[in-house]
Amino acid sequence: MESMRMKTVSHRRRISFTALLLLVLAISLSTRVSGSIDESGNRVIEARTGQDLIWVVQLSDLHFSVHHPERAIDFKNIVGPALSLINPSLVFITGDLTDGKSKDMLTMKQNEDEWLEYESVMQDVVKRSGLNKTIFYDLRGNHDSFGVPAVGSSVDFFSKYSINGQMGRKENVNAVTVETSERKHLFVGVDTTMRIGLRGPTNLFGHPTDELLSSLDSHLSQWDNQSTKPVTKISFGHFPLSFSALSHSQKSLKHVFLKHSVSAYLCGHLHSKFGKNLKRHHHSGGISLSDNDLFQLNMRQSSAESTENCSFGALPAAEFWEWEMGDWRKNRAMRIMAIDRGHVSYIDLDFKSKSQKTIILPTFPLDSRFMSTSFARHKYECQHMISSSYDAIRSIVFSHSLILEVVARVYDSSPGFDNLVMEAPMRKHGDDSSSSSGATFFSLPWNYRAFEDPLPDRYWLQIEVTDIKGRSTLSEMRPFSINGLSSKVSWTWNEFRVMGFQWAALYYPVLWSALCCLFLVFLIPKCIIIVFKKQYTLKKFIAKKGPITLVLWILQDLCRIPVVWFGYMAYLLYLIFFPWFSGEVFTESGNRTYMTIMGWVVTSSGTDRKHEYIGQPDVMVLVIPHVVFVVIPSVLVVCCLVAEREMYKDYIRTVSGKKEDDHDWGRKKRSQSHSLLFSNKRLIRKSLLMASLALYWKHFKNCWALARAYEMNVVHFPGYSLVVPLLLLYVIWKTQKVA
């Protein structure tokens, strides 16, 4: 009995020791994150760096796909170890976690296998990174809402498999604060995906509601009256503002961001295929054709000469940066963003082209192309700055190997890039907790006033790091302006068309402009015939040459073919007032609905069962291409066919001597010139027939893509698919005859 009692006591001691060990492990893990919920319900994380410095990681557009397993495999093998090295305070994954596309990329709906893979990969990444799962924030992208009729439905896999869903973050707006001894850093994530998720391609835009904007406003202001420390505000989401619609009250995310002077908005969605400079500086002003900006010509609007008002309490115009990042899908991109004493900087990493043995992130001075702000310029010119934030060049270095030397170099570009004006070693800052993870902070005191200059890109900074293995790594050269001036960077055409236009605001102006032009094409010549009794013919055009006479002659000839005139007029009215087609818009089949130029018509799930339009302006990806690239070209081809027939008839009459003025010299000259183009071969007509075939092929591809996307056949969209081809075919047949 005594021995049994001794064994029981020993067993209990082992259990107690094991429990204590688990408790210590849990405490140490939570201490690494140092998260807490304050009395106001705000989540706060204590920074681990021991300085007024934090950094976070952003990933976007993962597009895990059952057809492309390498995306998830690379993510598992690369991101976990990279996060272990970087050891960020937070990790943001800004949408499009899964792909939701068929192998031919035409059918777009949810696939649970992709979500199971995402859940498994993220569990492995969290484990290999050594980070706490609670610091990961993943957002829903448009691909993650393809065919999801409502949040919480059976196909809403985001709520089931995402980290946000598993952590109980069910709201569209989530906030977290990272706090240092000197500053608070507020991060607010916003999910603006469709409330009712349609299948693609008509699921392309963010749709903030008034309720969401109110919640965003509340979260961004949570520290305004509570904190004695300065607050740096960052927001993150999936959609760029150029692909975000307005709310019911015509408000936008931009209004809220400007109101709270956020430092930056981090987003994804566009991928890297449109360019590397998908960045935009927003401010309260600029080119505006209405209450909402329709376009912006450059990355940032050119500002006037400095007219800073340095009186007490005066501040510059509200502003913020929008930084779209590349995708993981094809480019294996990752972003590290740092906030150093209020200065926000970042570096985009490319894991596709090279492995990242050593990562250099300069945190001050800032890149004058993509990071400088008018607020920094205001602070400098008005001397409202903390001198300690300007008195050193600073950088974070991430490396698995021991760093032997870090050297900062400043180049003066006025005579050329070979003019080195400063070179000095940087000093490592103490052995804080971040150093053990591979992140080390370096600084170099300098006389910053020696680099004041009216040119924003005269001075360029580069940092070289040498590790214990003798490997040398150079940072990208970046221009800087101590006095806060901004270098001008112009978008390429591809960058401009996705970042410079406010597409949601442009949908109806573009659509109605195109439709009005088409109506005028058919109505003006008809009115001239009926009201003004004027006839324009080829003979009149030959007698009185001019572009107006030419156009009116061709259009009046078109109006003299009743089937074509009434056919196009009826078709244009059909496009405006009637459904274009019906299709399956949700992942689960059996709920067919129809689409108009105002969106898809769905029935609400409430007791009143109201019909409502959703997917506006998303339907523009179908509406505008059909009107601009199918209907308008078909009208042009029809006009050219009609004109060619009349010219050919004139040629036939000329060469056969059927005209009354047989001995007219002008007739003979015209016959000679026409013979080159209007002989029996009718080369112009053949070229127009080739153009018609190209148009048929374009239209057929559009119809096939729609049929695959929304499970349709010709019965479900007869008007859209058949009218234009039949009208064009009729004109081809009609213009073949010359009698």
UniProtKB/TrEMBL annotation:
Q: What is this protein called?
A: Metallophosphoesterase
- Origin species, per record, is Cardamine amara subsp. amara
Q: Signal sequence: where?
A: 1-35
UniProt cross-references to Gene3D superfamilies, sorted A to Z:
3.60.21.10
Q: Which residues form the Calcineurin-like phosphoesterase domain?
A: 55-272
- Would I find Transferase among this entry's keywords? no
Q: What is the lineage of its organism?
A: Eukaryota, Viridiplantae, Streptophyta, Embryophyta, Tracheophyta
Q: Where are the transmembrane segments?
A: 506-532, 563-581, 619-643, 712-733
Q: Which PANTHER family match?
A: HELICASE RELATED, TRANSMEMBRANE PROTEIN 62
Keyword annotations from UniProtKB, A to Z: Membrane, Signal, Transmembrane, Transmembrane helix
User: In this protein, which residues make up the domain named TMEM62 Ig-like?
Assistant: 355-485
